[in-house]
Design brief:
The protein is mainly alpha-helical. Helix 12 packs antiparallel against helix 13.
Length: 308
């Protein structure tokens, strides 16, 4: 297992380099001059412009800039935003909030999606199964910004059982409704994925064999059906964690959450490449780590993978 982890970490290095190079190229090779965008309509002397270009290494060739950026990543020096504040401070402020929000959303969609999907799969074709399919289809069809504004109005404004916006502390109680909104779409997918996987595994040969050997219904469902049905669900949840962190812009905007989404949106509108690239780089690392955890969970769920 230790050698497998080392091998997976080594495989992640070229993926990380390729992804960061692509992001760096897309951000820094787009048309426009970030220094002129920083100045706006105010005049800037050539001396000040040259100083800013040297400060942000914009006077260097592209690959030199990229190598300097990688050096900063290794030393955990993400540079300085155009506002003069270190990007590392922005990361330390925004990422814990968004990671907390994304983990709550994954926990909600994972637990409730698996539970409802399991029951629907075991009762395929019955009333509960049909109801869950209709509910999940409605959730998928409604855009997340509509769900967010509706939850904010009903729970926060009309009924007053939840805060309308999130403060800078971003406690678990304040993030509960945003997490429900953020994880609602993935909840529908997890429910459907679990339901289809459970329904398919119920007719498998190993399930019939376990039943013929006299194993009780709870043991057959939990040990044989559910355990094998969770493999595609774990794959989806692992990939969805990175997607939730990167795609929380809408939810964070609705509930005024000072996380990655809002900070990234402001950095893009202000034209701050160092902040954008640094935030996206950390998102890439989170996504790679999530996929590593998914691979390890495969071995825990399927002994064939562990023995191989």
């Amino acid at each position: 297992m230790a050698w497998y982890i080392v091998r997976r970490l080594l495989q992640m290095i070229p993926v990380f380099l390729g992804a960061t190079l692509l992001v760096y190229a897309m951000v820094f090779l787009v048309p426009g001059d970030p220094i002129q965008a920083l100045a706006g309509d105010k005049p800037m002397t050539p001396a000040v412009e040259a100083q800013l270009r040297a400060r942000y290494h914009l006077d260097e060739p592209f690959f030199v800039q990229y190598l300097l950026y990688l050096k900063g990543i290794v030393t955990l020096d993400f540079g300085t935003a155009f506002s003069g504040r270190p990007v590392r401070d922005e990361l330390a402020r925004a990422f814990p909030i968004t990671i907390k929000l994304a983990l709550m959303a994954v926990l909600i969609e994972g637990v409730f999606g698996v539970i409802f999907g399991l029951i629907a799969g075991l009762r395929k074709g019955r009333l509960f199964d049909s109801t869950m399919l209709v509910v999940s289809l409605i959730i998928i069809a409604v855009p997340i910004f509509v769900t967010g504004f509706l939850a904010q109005f009903l729970l926060g404004v009309k009924w007053g059982i939840a805060p309308v916006t999130v403060t800078g502390h971003a406690s678990f109680g304040e993030l509960l409704v945003p997490a429900l909104v953020l994880g609602s779409l993935s909840f529908a997918y997890v429910l459907r994925l679990t339901r289809n996987s459970v329904a398919e595994n119920m007719s498998a040969d190993y399930v019939r064999t376990a039943t013929a050997k006299g194993l009780g219904r709870p043991r057959v469902v939990t040990v044989h059906i559910l355990r094998n049905s969770l493999i595609p669900v774990i794959t989806f949840l692992g990939a969805d964690l990175g997607a939730l962190i990167g795609g929380a812009v809408v939810t964070e905007g609705i509930f005024n959450i000072p996380g990655v989404g809002g900070t990234l949106y402001q950095a893009i509108t202000r034209g701050e490449p160092p902040t954008v690239v640094s935030f996206v780089t950390v998102l890439i690392v989170v996504f790679l780590i999530a996929n590593l955890v998914v691979d390890l969970l495969y071995a825990a769920l399927d002994p064939r993978i562990r023995y191989a």
